[in-house]
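Working notes for the structural subgroup meeting. M.R. asked for a predicted model of this chain before we commit to crystallization trials. I am recording the input and output together here so anyone reviewing the notebook later can reproduce the run.

Input as submitted:
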Amino acid sequence: MALATLGLASCELGDIFHARTCFSEALQLAAIHQDLASLMYALIGITLLLTELGLREQAIALHALASRYPMVANSCWFNQVIGSHITAVEVTMPSEDVSLAFARGRSRDSIDAVGKLKVELADTLRTGDSVIA
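Returned structure, recorded in token form:
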């Protein structure tokens, strides 16, 4: 959870590479320890990172996935951290695209999504690309 929080701070300060590193490590540890709370912090952090990178549909889909869990959906803190960013992204997109991204996120398998995110973050850290593929 500490790594995910550090990633959030790095993202807000504009240090995208450090944020990706923190979120990648947070995902790895959350998966190893099967720690749902840490996983949710990492997912919300990655959602923020995606908004910063302009990956709007991916951000909405990941936010929808994380919001399936009450600890995110019912949390004022999580809403403060990511809510305004998601709202800002949504208003820049056609409503049907937002709905499709949201539905895609809601229907994704959590384990599959986390596995894919771990690979994508590791790949971008290795190659130094500026976006999550």
